Amino acid sequence: MKLLERTERWTTCAAVLAFATIACGQPEQWLEYHSSREGRGYRWLELTTNPPPNVALPKLNAQPYFARWTTPLDPAGGRWLCFDRTRKAGPCDRLFFDRSGNGRLDDDPPVEAARRDEYAAHFDPQRVVFKGEDGPVTYHLLLRFMKYDDNTTSLLAESGGWYEGNVNIGGAKRKVQLIDGNVNGAFNDLAVNPSDADRLVVEGDKGGDRYLGRLLELDGQLFQVEVARDGAFIKVRKAENVVLGQVRVPEAISELTAVGDSGHFIRKPAKGEFTLPVGKYRVQGWSINRNDDKGVGWQLSGFNFNDFASFEATTAAPARLDVGEPVRTALQASESKGNVAFSLRLQGRLGETIEIQRAGERPRAPQLLLASRDGSFSVTNTFEYG
């Protein structure tokens, strides 16, 4: 059976939400494509002033910048971007985009920024169409070109499209959204590094926005999940015979979040122990909850981890995670144009950022006392939350 042609994906898709059962008995549940001017995933693209080789260029007004947006949906692996200026100063506010994928930048009309400010040019969603297995596949790419006072530049790419629909999960219909978290045009990326993974949002999921994995934990049940590369459908069935590995953390840890290609899991350890489906993970966050001597609740939490937070859950031996206390204070000073700025942050064992909250609110900002050795100068400054 030939599937519907997918251009803007799919205005008449409600009629297709009926399940198309496949040989293994797991149904394909079709989703609708939506687009917006607000990005849902982001990715930094590398800028260069070197023109790409063997790419025809348009007539340009100023020294241009180039970038390549990579995507597995393109047979060549990606599409070139060129940024030019319509004004003498400020960020580049004119875009040339190889939407057709023919390796040329001179045959598509330029696009001017929809909005400009002192440091950035914001472009409306750029519509790209790829050839899919069942017809054309539409995607929308958001771009923001930034240039700062020191002439450094950066390019932010955001996903301007997503898929959503009502999906049967364990016998109940739930609204599901698929988000291209790493902004490469595909919707089925699994990874240990969260920045390389796509995301899944399920209505009623207490865990909220989750990174996509082979497994989804919902209401205490595990489901196997498979997503089409272009995001057009999702397959969900109850997981069976899942092998678990033991993980150990300090007993003070109240909650820990782990992300890997097996899934996104939130655990509340019992005496410092819990289980996860076997696989490779990275610690996404942890928290310690305590009450002070007046009975007021406090939470110490860690986030923004790096590669040192990676671990593997196996059946051979428990994985041991050295997270939590103690934490340390990092004070940094930087000088610019005769002014000295201080920054203060708390760091965990693995270099993660630490935050302290009092009964759901931030405590009073810390103060910094600066004084000379002879006492002739003394001033107290209060930090501000960034």
Descriptive notes:
The chain folds into three domains: 13-35 and 162-238, no CATH class; 42-161, no CATH class; 244-320, no CATH class. The chain is built from no helices and 32 strands. The protein has strands at 20-21, 27-30, 32-35, 42-45, 65-70, 78-84, 94-97, 111-112, 115-116, 120-132, 135-147, 153-159, 161-169, 172-179, 199-202, 210-211, 215-218, 221-227, 233-238, 244-248, 255-260, 263-267, 273-277, 279-291, 297-303, 310-313, 319-320, 328-336, 339-347, 353-358, 367-371, 378-382. The strands form seven sheets. Strands 21, 22, 24, 25, 26, 28, 29 and 30 form an eight-stranded antiparallel beta sheet that branches. Strands 1-2-19-18-17 form a five-stranded antiparallel beta sheet, with no helix packed on it. Strands 3-13-14-15-16 form a five-stranded antiparallel beta sheet, with no helix packed on it. It starts with 19 loop residues before the first strand and ends with a strand.
